[in-house]
Design a protein that fits this description.
Layout (H helix, E strand, L loop, with lengths): L5 H6 L4 E4 L11 H8 L6 E4 L5 E2 L2 E2 L13 E4 L3 H14 L3 E4 L8 H17 L3 E3 L5 E4 L4 E4 L14 E5 L2 H14 L5 E4 L8 H8 L7 E6 L5 H13 L4 E5 L4 H11 L6 H10 L3 E3 L2 H6 L1 H4 L11 E6 L2 H13 L3 E2 L4 H9 L9 E3 L7 H13 L5 E6 L2 H4 L1 H9 L8 E5 L4 H9 L3 E3 L2 H13 L11 H15 L4 E2 L1 H10 L8 E3 L14 E6 L12 E5 L2 H18 L7 E6 L5 E10 L3 E8 L4 H4 L2 E5 L4 H10 L17 H12 L9 E11 L6 E3 L2 E5 L5
Parallel strand pairs: 1-2, 1-5, 5-6, 6-7, 10-11, 10-12, 12-13, 13-14, 15-16, 15-17, 15-18, 18-19, 19-20
Antiparallel strand pairs: 3-4, 8-9, 8-11, 21-31, 22-25, 23-24, 23-25, 26-27, 26-29, 27-28, 29-30, 29-31
Helix pairs in contact: 3-4, 6-7, 12-18, 14-16, 16-17, 19-20, 23-24
Length: 703
């Protein structure tokens, strides 16, 4: 029997081995056999247990090699110490895929990481692909296949659907299936990927991009491990018009710590992860409930186009609608009143006069002849990108009447989101059957709407001119010989090589008389040292120096202060620059994030940059157009836009500088781990920008 593709072996295996399966069907290691039989798997199942001749009434075999036929998929259920031998046996027997239940690998420290490395090495030597470790299994309701140890699959039936779930948490698969069953939401393929020692979310997702039984993907993520594979998955899913919705842990430090302890996840910046998901057209939601409910909002749709991101609201209960509208306001989503033309059309179908953003049809909205034409008018209204419908008690007591005007609307024209204020399970099921996005809580409803309106087509690829990269790489290789952290002079030289204007500077020895400067007073003086990153904190900066004699005194004082705070620091002199002035001070940064890869950041600059926490992040490189969008996202940059009649700053030059710094993503050797311009002075419109300080940190030289 020819070895199948890993995707076929995962979701449509012709024969299965259960290695270490228990005779007790109630135990974790006994459940997979029970669930496979319970839910109708039709292929051969080979229980592997050297201690028993039969398991749960079925013949058992001492080893994988003794099974009477070829095996596509093995579920390894043995304890951690025995996993390595089981993987080796599967590789030797020509098994295509093995899923590993046990924990105690990458999440268990150095020893666990070594165990994980060894099983991957063994598997690759034998052409075996691995799922896990820490995997609760694989489900395909269309096969049917329930190859899982998750207790939730003791349910009598598995509702079929066209959603695929890829989860780094095994238990969350059961959570989604059980909650979905109560709502009439079914799933097709589900997989617990665990530690992703071999097969990653991205590689599995890419293999399913053309799957005819899948309309959309739901991801539960604790980290992003193989970002290139994830990017490829996103591109293939986008080409196949199959949206990806992700719920990712890590908004808080506690969430990040839990992800690390669970599957050995990498920790990076949550803002960087946001940027990565946005760049690749993946919708991110903040509520687990939203992950379950949001798919109908995006299935069969493209991201919204144009600048219209406004929401129209119609309700039979104004108070219920307000609970969603209030949340939307916190999320920055614009809920606006209908236009005069739309209001006139609503009055013509007997909707009472309205003032405000919520069209409250009151109890009259329970009548089809009122709600249906009102909904049609709002769906056709050009001022709205999406329509929110809120239904009160009629959703609980008259589900058919509440649902009919909604499902009869032309859904293909504009997305509809429905929030039901009572507990109305039957109405939720009816809406799910008709492919309408229905929400049980105002928080999840607002979360889904915000995610949909933030959904964008990925921007075109952007990059630097080859000669720019060549020039920057040569400069960095020369600097790398002196250390991994560049001093300010070297950093400014790199920024200039990238095409960013930098301040003129002059370096001198504080012990010598001040030299004649090639620029006029007043000046700024700074200690020059690759070992002192925060010069202000070290007393190493003096501003508005008016004369040469003042410069000499200040230079000696700066060096003395820096030596007292950093006795071991290398001090290479004092760097002097003309005092640069402008509309605002901006921080522009670049770094390699542990999860998202290269990202670029822009925010308010100066010494309070870390306190403001008002910034925009994108994956790098970015174009000037993307950089302009970043600038628009920063609230503090109102000053650059001519706030309250003040002169505007040169936003175009700032966008060009952001784009230029982001091209560091094109450098592979030496790789830049971190680069920061702080501050970049933004001059008045048409006058450009100038970098006056910065730092660059390189990856260690490859030996």
């Amino acid at each position: 029997m020819q070895r199948p593709s890993f995707a076929d072996a995962l979701f449509n295996p012709r024969a299965i081995a259960l290695i270490g399966v228990s005779d007790d069907a109630g135990k974790t290691a006994g459940r997979p056999l029970r669930f496979l039989r319970k839910h109708g798997y039709a292929g051969p199942i080979y229980p592997i247990n050297p201690n028993r001749s039969a398991v749960q009434g079925e013949r058992a075999y001492a080893g994988v090699g003794e099974a009477p036929g070829p095996i596509d998929h093995a579920y390894i259920l043995v304890n951690t110490p025995a996993v390595e031998a089981a993987v080796a046996a599967c590789a030797e027997a020509g098994v295509a895929v093995a899923t590993i239940l046990a924990s105690g690998f990458a999440e268990a420290g150095d020893a666990g990481r070594e165990r994980q490395r060894k099983i991957v090495e063994i598997a690759r030597g034998g052409g075996l692909r691995l799922v896990g470790p820490n995997s609760l299994g694989v489900i395909n309701t269309w096969a049917p296949l329930a190859l899982t140890a998750n207790a939730a699959f003791a349910a009598d039936t598995l509702p079929r659907g066209r959603l695929a779930v890829l989860s780094q948490s095994g238990s969350l698969i059961g959570t989604l299936v059980s909650r979905g069953a109560a709502r009439g939401i079914g799933f097709g393929k589900l997989i617990s990927v665990g530690n992703e020692a071999d097969l990653s979310v991205g590689e599995i997702g890419a293999a399913l991009a053309e799957d005819p039984d899948t309309d959309a993907f739901l991801l539960f993520l604790e980290t992003i491990r193989a970002r290139d594979e994830m990017a490829r998955f996103a591109a293939l899913a986008r080409r196949a018009a199959k949206p990806i919705i992700a719920y990712k842990l890590g908004r808080s430090e506690v969430g990040q710590a839990l992800a690390v302890s669970h599957t050995g996840a990498m920790v990076g910046s949550d803002a960087a992860v946001d940027a990565f998901l946005r760049r690749h057209g993946i919708l991110r939601v903040d509520h687990l409930e939203t992950l379950l409910e949001a798919a109908p909002l995006v299935v069969g749709r493209n991201p919204p186009t144009g600048r219209n991101r406004r929401v129209g609201v119609i309700a039979t209960t104004g108070g219920g609608a307000a609970t969603v509208v209030d949340r939307l306001g916190l999320l920055g989503v614009e809920v606006t009143p209908p236009s005069a033309d739309t209001l006139a059309k609503l009055r013509a179908v007997n909707v009472p006069p309205q003032s405000g953003p919520i069209i409250d049809v009151t109890l009259a909205g329970t009548r089809y002849d009122v709600m249906r034409p009102a909904l049609d008018i709002l769906i056709d209204a050009p001022e709205f990108a999406l329509v929110l419908v809120t239904i009160g008690s009629s959703a609980q007591f008259n589900p058919e009447l509440a649902v009919k005007p909604i499902v009869d609307c032309a859904r293909e024209k504009k997305p509809l989101a429905v929030f039901l204020t009572p507990q109305a399970d039957e109405t939720l099921r009816l809406l799910a059957q008709h492919g309408i996005a229905a929400f049980r809580t105002p928080e999840a409803c607002a979360d889904a709407i915000a995610a949909y309106l933030a959904w964008h087509e990925p921007p075109p690829a952007s990059g630097a001119r080859p000669e720019t990269i060549t020039r920057a790489a040569a400069l960095l290789r020369a600097a790398q010989a002196q250390g991994e952290v560049l001093d300010e002079r070297q950093s400014l030289a790199l920024f200039e090589a990238l095409g960013i204007p930098v301040a003129r500077s002059h370096v001198f020895d504080a012990a010598a008389p001040p030299p004649a400067l090639p620029f006029p007073f007043p000046v700024a003086a700074k200690v020059l040292s690759p070992d002192i990153i925060h010069k202000t904190d070290a007393g190493g900066v003096a501003l508005e120096i008016a004369t040469a004699s003042d410069l000499g005194e200040q230079a000696r004082a700066l060096v003395a202060a820096a030596r007292s705070r950093h006795p071991a620091a290398r001090i290479e002199g004092v760097l002097v620059q003309p005092m640069e002035r402008g509309i605002a001070e901006v921080l522009v940064g670049y770094h390699l994030d542990a999860q998202a890869g290269p990202v670029v950041t822009v925010g308010m600059g100066g010494t309070l940059a870390e306190i403001y926490r008002d910034y925009a992040v994108r994956t790098a490189p970015v174009s000037a157009a993307e950089a302009a969008e970043m600038i628009a996202d920063v609230r503090g940059f109102a000053v650059l836009r001519g706030h309250r009649g003040k002169p505007p700053g040169d936003v175009d030059a700032l966008a060009e500088a952001i784009a230029a710094l982001s091209t560091l993503a094109g450098l592979s050797e030496p790789a830049v781990l971190e680069a920061e311009i702080n501050p970049l002075i933004v001059r008045p419109a048409g006058k450009g920008v100038v970098a006056v300080d910065g730092v660059v940190r390189l990856a260690p030289a490859q030996r």
